[in-house]
Amino acid sequence: MRVRRSLGLALALGGGFGLYQAVKIKALQAQEEDTTQTSDGTLKLTLYQYKTCPFCSKVRAFLDFYGLPYEIVEVNPVMRQEIKWSSYRKVPILMVNNSLQLNDSSVIISAIRTHLINKNKNMADIIRCYPEMKSVNDRGKEVTEYTNKYWLMLDEVDTTTVYPEKEIQKEEMKWRRWADDWLVHLISPNVYRTTGEALASFDYIVHEGKFGTVEGFFAKYVGAAAMFFISKMLKARHNLQDDVRQDLYKAVNDWVTAIGKKRKFMGGDNPNLADLAVYGVLRVMEGLQAYDDMMSNTKIKHWYRRMEKATTSHEGQC
User: 56 catalytic, yes or no?
Assistant: First the structure.
């Protein structure tokens, strides 16, 4: 039983690599008024997360940049009692005023950003623009996807204001998708690359996560061993090189090249949603050997430091 539970800890840093998150609306249907906003128009946000999950980190980076206050509920990745009330058993989950449940990291970001741009749109109406689409993947597992999740639900005037040129919008969407479809899959193979790195990663997970004493012990040692072998499976699944560091280095250098030398961020003088997504994914490696190697062997450092400052200073706050 302990081994099976420890295997479940793969979610703690991977957030379920290779899988997309899903959205479930939990709004009251028989309401005469929208209760997803407080009386002063602000949103009360509660984020259910694993701190070391890259998908959760994406959401935090977004909320921090825009200066949106939110409460955090750290979920135990083994028992997940904190989300026992939800039929959706993954994280992140973002509750809006305890009445609307948002589950997919990219949908969460797109929906909240849409509301920030046009606060006349209530969240319940916005989230209906991201319907669930269920299918069976090539491994025979049912998955839930959202074809609209990288779109902001804006009218023509707001779209032109936010994206003066269509190419700006296309570029942002392209790299947000890249962060979900490629970059995130490089994390586990790199942080669990060797037995020593796997042990260090789970030591960090246990320290930052929500574990009991005995549970934490088994999480660290059994979980690290399990993820060392699982990372090899992920390496084969995603056709990574023998030295997975090279895939990580190439990915982040491709990102820096796409930004170019004339822009501080992909969003220009300020981060856009692609910047926030990439930064959110990469920062879960902080404190680990993979992070140190990335900073030493790629061109990411200057952009990364600018992103640190932008998020911690809430530079997107209106």
Answer: yes
Question: Is 45 in a helix, a strand, or coil?
Answer: strand
Q: Are 52 and 208 in contact (CB under 8 A)?
A: yes
φ, ψ of residue 298 in degrees (nearest 5): -135, 180
- Structure tokens, 304: 């990364």
d(CA 298, CA 290): 12
Annotate 192-207 with DSSP letters as a single string. Answer: TSSHHHHHHHHHHHHH
Catalytic site residue from 20, 48, 53, 150: 53
Among residues 17, 48, 50, 66, the one annotated as catalytic is 50
Give the other-Cβ count within 10 Å of 81's Cβ.
10
SS3 of 56-101? HHHHHHHHHHCCCCEEEEECCCCCCHHHCCCCCCCCCEEEECCCEE
pLDDT mean values, one per 10 residues, the chain (318 residues): 43 40 36 46 92 96 98 89 88 95 96 96 94 84 86 97 96 98 96 89 77 68 76 88 96 98 97 98 96 98 98 95
Instruction: Locate 222 and state its tokens.
Output: 């059994």
Q: What is the pLDDT of residue 298?
A: 98
Q: For this structure, is 55 an active site residue?
A: yes
DSSP 3-state of 310: helix
H/E segment holding residue 157: helix 156-162
Is 50 part of the annotated catalytic residue set? Answer: yes
Strand-pairing partners, residue 48, are 73, 93
Read off the tokens for 272.
């856009």
Reading the block at residue 215, the tokens are: 């549970």
Joined together, the tokens standing for residue 163 give: 């994206």
